[in-house]
Amino acid sequence: TQLLEQSPQFLSIQEGENLTVYCNSSSVFSSLQWYRQEPGEGPVLLVTVVTGGEVKKLKRLTFQFGDARKDSSLHITAAQPGDTGLYLCAGEGYSSASKIIFGSGTRLSIRP
Amino acid sequence: ETGVTQTPRHLVMGMTNKKSLKCEQHLGHNAMYWYKQSAKKPLELMFVYNFKEQTENNSVPSRFSPECPNSSHLFLHLHTLQPEDSALYLCASSQDSGTGYTFGSGTRLTVV
To answer: How far apart are alpha carbons A66 and B14 in whole angstroms?
Structure first.
């Protein structure tokens, strides 16, 4: 069974600080996605990474896909209160029957 | 506006009631999904439809019954639910594998 572990589960930091959250698995994925979910809403896709070692930037957010395609990280620079939310990673396998599996998420709180 | 609309947003039902959740997407996507999100657990895939055909039934109890009349609409019919079925039910759609999902805002279901 494929599993995606996210760490930390909870993170509360001061506005302006930097942070990194991690998504790890023993399985290899063809692609990996990151989502942000705010209370009372559905997850919103932030980025998809497909190439081992790939780095993508979205303003203050930097996403990296591991060389072995088993893990990923999300780094936020100078966190803002608007970054608060549940961050979910999701991985897709290689076969046509593969389902996207989700990690349990990192709940991030940015204090003003 | 996420492109995927779910109704109702909130639903409280007794264990003997019958209700239906509705999902609608006008993104031209060919796949639609039902997910269950419970506290402190990863998103659980329930059903997958590709071009209106059900391709996945992830060992979901028969008290949940999906219906996909066309590629834009998806329903989840509920009957004789249990209190442990209380959760956020999310609908999502996608076009191709590896491109990520577009989620609706969810229906917050409470079974009393």
So the answer is: 47
Residue B10 sits at the chain A interface (C-beta within 8 Å): no
User: Which of B58, B101, B107, B109 is the best mutation test for A, with the most CBs of A within 10 A?
Assistant: B101
Q: Which member of A41, A50, A102 has the closest CB to residue B43?
A: A102
Q: Is B83 helix (H, G, I), strand (E, B) or coil?
A: helix
Among residues A109, A85, A90, A76, the alpha carbon closest in space to that of B102 is found at A90
Report the C-alpha gap between A109 and A60 in whole angstroms: 16
Look at residues B85, B80, B97, B2 and name the one whose alpha carbon lies nearest to residue B46. B85
Put simply, the chain B residues between 30 and 59 with a CB less than 8 A from any chain A CB are: 40-43, 45, 48, 56
Q: What is the pLDDT of residues B4-53, one digit of tens each?
A: 999 999 999 999 899 999 999 999 998 999 999 998 788 999 999 987 77
Please indicate if any CB of chain B lies within 8 Å of the CB of A102. Answer: yes
Asked if residues B102 and B27 have their Cβ atoms less than 8 Å apart, the reply is yes
Q: What is the pLDDT of residues A64-77, one digit of tens each?
A: 999 999 999 999 99
Distances in whole angstroms, Cα of residue B70 to Cα of each of A16, A45, A84, B75, B105 = 47, 25, 37, 10, 21
